[in-house]
Structure formats: structure tokens, C-alpha cells
């Protein structure tokens, strides 16, 4: 046989967690057709000597819902070996939508996921109304990698209920029936599942609660019943269990988890995933989530817990959405200026002296998407500085207090705010600092390791395409491979074969993506060739490359010799090639093929 592509001399990890083997991989028409010796000629041969060969990675939790309509490259995920992304997490998205509600959905996404509204307004093509039309429109555009679409609760609610959806009104029986019908329609058209968001920190750009944030148990169960009789589809939820309102409403953890169980149960056995992280203000809540999830499994529910391989961190700097001075009166007077102009003003000793005498004014409240936790953190400067770090050119995400900004201030015998001020002016105001807001209460990743090793865990929470002014966690796959299997010195590590499994077959099996996630004859040729010895992350940096001049954080990696999608090389030696074989993953078709 003459192959389109042959990879030779590589160390092959099959994606199932088995020991690697020295083998070749041959591809024709986008499908793996041979493993082992792979005798025969090929149009292209990749010599993977000294490299590992893995299935393409799958990212379970992204927010490319707007970007996917205008951007063929799908960065930053493609740069980290990801060949399939699941979009539509946390209940926010852009379909179904009526023309009159487009701006409303933009304001929700802008507030919840920190994506510039101007970029969304200019970039989104809006050549759809219904969810099936949205999927068709996206599938007709070029993309570097594959993507799957979830039905998202917020736009679904707005589409059915109009203004009633954003005024915290309860859905009627007819509202629920229509949301169920539309969800079923999308699932039958190939949507991978349904997601909802119930987080107090999720607000629209106007400071309003997201439409689905307080949906009733009856509404959620009614929508989930759309899965009845289907053999595909997953459910996803994010919930902080009313953490920011405990003082007013009391501990509603069990009440909220009961609601999630009812939601998952109504989907007739379909898999359900819930976000898992450690929050400083409720440091034991993650253990309660695990306990309740284990109980739910005992009741017959199919539940997984989405975990991240590092802190859920905020990048702060003068270019970023947030930094410690955004509420200071002097800074607010110059915040409209360009970066260079702000830096010039802030280098004036008189300006600095005045600002450092001031107190931060509230940045949260009515009419702003900023959650109350932001003001609490701004008021606790020493606490924040004790776990804020410089990442460096070879980013170190697991540092101790000895390398923190607080310790820098103590060493220099200057006030903490002055230390932060001086650091942020470095590199002409482009210096970035890292504050792990979640998953770093004990100043190490021992709890993260416990989460990842739990049998219910599944890798997720990268938020690819979102929080672009504060977060760049699309690099999670590279970090999992390089840090957790090779570089970590402070505690437990993962085996490389297990890390690959977590990024491939584990997620594919959960999602029902039976055509990928393994290196096996007959499966789609989504493949990575990686130089594990040379694999490394670079420091995040801000790029002004979004529509309407919007900016976002990007983070490059070194070590990806080839990222292959459907047999085509889309990344070669860490650079995009300009190939766009990515397609919409229609899980209903995969389920039918499996049944046949």
C-alpha cells in the first residue's frame, strides 16, 4: 500500500495507558491504517527517532464559541498538541440566538469569560440562528483542529424566554418544554452535550447574573430529559455552591449538590462532569465535592470531576484585565492612556508617591462584572503578594513563599504595594506576575495531585479561548506532560503513559468520541510527535491580535515536532503550517456508526 503519511522510529504511546513500544504509524485518507513495521512507501515520512508518538490531545473544557467563527488557527490550543476541543462550557455560548439578542449574549460572554466585547462584536459572523445552523456554519469554515459543540444554557434560556431570562424569573412548564425540544434537536444534529453555569463569580459585562445561574431543579431536570433514549451526549456544570453568599444565605452546599444530582439523574445515565478546585475561602469544599460525587456514584450516577494540573491562576500586569492598582484614584485617572503613556506617568516619582498614599476604591458592585472576591483580594495585599510570583522565561508555577513578591518586598525593605508597583513597570510595563487564585492554598500542588489521582477525575478546566486578559491555561497539556511526568521535584509525579491516557482515551471515552483518543487501526489520524527531552513552556505574553484591536495572552511551547489532524500536519516544529483539516465532531454520527 502507498500511504499518505508514515511515522517511523518513534516511541508509541497508544493512549490507553499501556507501556510504549517502538513502532511505526501509517496513515491514509486521514485514518490510521497500519501500526508496527508499516511496510510500504509514503508520500511523506516523519522520522520520530528519539521522540514520542501519541494520540492527539482532547481538551474537554474550552470557550472558543465566538473565536471559532472567525479564526482558522485555533490558537493557543493547537500549539499544545490539542487536536480536538469541546466548546460551550459553563453554559455560555452564541446559539440559538435571535438578531435582537446578539449583543446580550456578547455581554454575557464578555463578563463571564473575559473576552473583549468589541472583538466578539466585530469577529463573530452570526450566520446562524438555531444550534444546528450554528454547527453547519462552523463546519463550513476552515480550522486547524477539530471541535465539538455543547448546547449552552444561557443562550438557550434567552432564546426561549426573552427578557424574562435575565430578570431571574422561573421558567414555566412551556418554557422548559421548548428548551428540552431545542436541546434534543441540537443533540440529534450532533451536539456533544449540554452545559450550565451556577457560579456567583459569573456576571455579564453589565454586572447581571447569568440567565441560567439560578435555574430551578425542575428546569434543569426538564432540559436533561432531552437525552432520553439517546446513546450519546454528556452534561457539564460549574458550581461554586453559593460560596460568596454563605454569609447571607447560609451553607447551601448540600442543597446545590442535590440539584446537580437531580439534573444528572434526569439524563438517563448519560455522563456528567463537575468542576473541582480548591478555593482559599472554602479550603475543604473540594473534599466535600469528592465525597458527594462518590455517594452519587454509589447511587448509580455516571459522574466525573474535572480537574486542572496546576493552579487556576490570574496573570496580572498593566496590560491585563486586572492588577492591584485598578481601583486606585490616581491610576483610574490615567487608565485610558496607552501602555507607554501610563508607564511614563507611573515612573514619575511624584505620581508614584501620591498613588501609594491612596486606598483602592471598590471595583465590584452593581453594573460591573467584577465579583466581590476582587475587592476582598485587593484589600488583602500581603496575602495576595505571599502567593504572587514572577514566572520567568521557564515558567515555574509551583513556587514557595520564599520566592513570592511579599518576600521580595521584605528583602528590599519596602512596602508590598511599592514592590508590586516597581515590578509592574519592568520591561516597559509588560512585566507579568502570576497569582494562583485556586488550587494553591497550601502553597504546593499536593492537593492537585490528590485530585488528579482520584478515580473520578478527568482532565479539564483549561478555559481555552477565554479569560484572555488574565489567564492562559490552554497550555495545560504541555504542563501535564513536562512538569508532572518529568520536572516536578516537590512531591508525587505521574507516569508518562498515564498522563497521555488522561489527555486522550479517557476524555474520548467520556465524550463518546469513538473515532479518536487512541493510536489504533481504523481510528482518525490525530497524532502528536513530541520531543519530550526538549518539551517546555515559554512565558505568557500579551498579543494584540483579536478583532477590533483586542488583546489576549498567548503561551508558546517548544517540543512539538508535529501536530497532525486527519493525517495533515498542522504544526511542524512548533509553528503553524497553514493546513486546516479540522472539522466539527458530530457525536450522533459516531454513536450510530458504533451501534451499526
Which word captures the global form?
Answer: globular
Q: Give the helix tally.
A: 22
Helix content: 25-40%
Would you tell me which CATH topology of the largest domain applies?
TIM Barrel
Bin the strand percentage: 15-25%
Biggest β-sheet, characterized? 9 strands, mixed
Which parts are unreliable, with pLDDT below 50 for 5 consecutive residues or more?
none
Q: How confident is the prediction overall: mean pLDDT?
A: 94
In short:
One of its GO terms (molecular function) is hydrolase activity, acting on carbon-nitrogen (but not peptide) bonds, in cyclic amides. The chain is of the alpha/beta class. 51% of the residues are buried.
Primary descriptors:
single chain, 596 residues, alpha/beta, TIM Barrel, nine-stranded mixed beta sheet, six-stranded parallel beta sheet, 25 strands, 32% helix
Secondary-structure map:
Layout: E1 3-12, E2 21-28, E3 31-36, E4 42-47, E5 52-55, E6 57-59, E7 82-86, H1 102-113, H2 117-123, H3 131-139, E8 146-148, E9 150-152, H4 153-161, H5 173-188, E10 193-198, H6 217-224, E11 234-239, H7 246-249, H8 253-265, E12 272-275, H9 285-298, E13 303-307, E14 312-316, H10 329-332, H11 339-346, H12 349-355, H13 372-378, H14 381-386, E15 389-390, H15 405-412, H16 416-424, H17 426-429, E16 433-438, H18 446-453, E17 457-459, H19 476-487, H20 496-503, H21 505-511, E18 527-530, E19 536-537, E20 541-543, E21 552-554, E22 557-558, E23 560-565, E24 568-572, E25 575-576, H22 587-595
Parallel strand pairs: 1-4, 1-5, 6-7, 7-8, 9-10, 10-11, 11-12, 12-13, 13-17
Antiparallel strand pairs: 1-2, 2-3, 5-18, 14-16, 15-16, 18-23, 19-22, 20-21, 23-24, 24-25
